[in-house]
Task: structure prediction
Amino acid sequence: MKSPPIDYAKQAVPADYVCRHCGATNCKLWRESGIFDLRLRCINCAGRCEKADVSSIDCAGMVVDRFYHDLSIAHRNCNFGCHVPAIPDQQNWGYWAIGCIPPEAFLWWRRLPSVPQRPGAELCRKTTAG
Result:
């Protein structure tokens, strides 16, 4: 059973918005692009899946593209490898395709913590340039 529709003005996440691998919730999640069997992953699990260093994650959910590590901050992206932001549609029936995400839905995702928080852990303090 799906969760009720999402109110993007609130920070609540749907009950099924959970990392399939570690159980993390209430944080940004990613999904594999073009896969029908959705595997939502937190940044740590998505990074392991991609064999990618995601330690550059900032509060906006941006990581340094692994092909451009030595270049400018302009090569930060919220997509990496085959993973894209998992942003539920407003009815919570599926996830927005990249390029079709409404601004309010993207802002909802950006407000979530980028890294799963453990009790007592400091909140993310990294910021994007600009």
